[in-house]
Amino acid sequence: MEELRQFRRFTVLFSLLLMGMGAAVALCWGRAAAEGVLLGGMGGIIPFWFLSFRMEKLARAGRDALRTLRPPWTLARLCVYAMALVWALRLDRTSLRGLYGALAGLFIVQMVQIVRVLIREKQPNSGEE
Questions:
Q1: Please, what is the Cα angle at 43 between 112 and 87, to 5 degrees?
Q2: Contact 105, 43 (CB under 8 A)
Q3: pLDDT above 90 covers what percent of the chain?
Q4: pTM, whole model, 2 decimals?
Q5: 90, exposed or middle or buried, with CB in 10 Å at 0-12, 13-18, 19+?
């Protein structure tokens, strides 16, 4: 249970850090790109936080609660992604820099998750022999 909480906290905090750094770098391409990174980053972090929080509840509740996770939360997550992309598209319709920034921002959370899992796999097992 504590592992899920640590994973959620690490992912959210590190994603926020990378989102801020990505927005600062995206300012080189313009304000729309930086705002797009922020929109996409928040559009990825918020659904991840809700979904991982629900996973913790599921871990406590057991197998019977498994049906409550998938359909409504998957649809809600996809709606948040779509809202972030549409809003970012409205920032800059000619060069689409806001949209590209939002796409990059959406992938920040997934990249942090992958890196976290890879780091965790490379660490030696401490006391689990």
A1: 140
A2: yes
A3: 53
A4: 0.82
A5: exposed
